[in-house]
Design brief:
Length: 156
Amino acid sequence: MKKVLFISSTGGHLTELLQLKKMFNKYDYHIITEKTKVNKELKKEYGKRINYVIYGTKDHKFSYVFKLLINCFIELFLFIKIRPQYIISTGAHIAGPMCLIGKIFGSKIIFIETFANRNSKTITGKYVYKFADLFLVQWKDMLKLYPKAKYWGSLF
């Protein structure tokens, strides 16, 4: 069974990622997201298949830089522990480092650009687009911005 890591930040990105839930049991899967009060509840449903990184927001720029750096080390540790063949992400900031780590170590990267953006690229999307093995968009209009992407339709 293929090992697949699903990763996204909390909020809308995680809501989009969890739309893929019907796929989870087809794989030896694992989920990584940020630790928040709401996301702690996911442990009840996913048990050992879910791990958390530190929650950070760009609204607090100074602490965000340190949290992102610490998360990079946590993600490297989790990557080595899980050893996924595939990484699937809907973004955002915590996804970029994990996708890069995965690419360096030979994982296939599948990135799904968020439904929330129809006319502009996300920061993580711009970054991961350069090396993703498969880059999916949920709006046909986004193909103008990401010409090598594939239109997949909405996750909702």
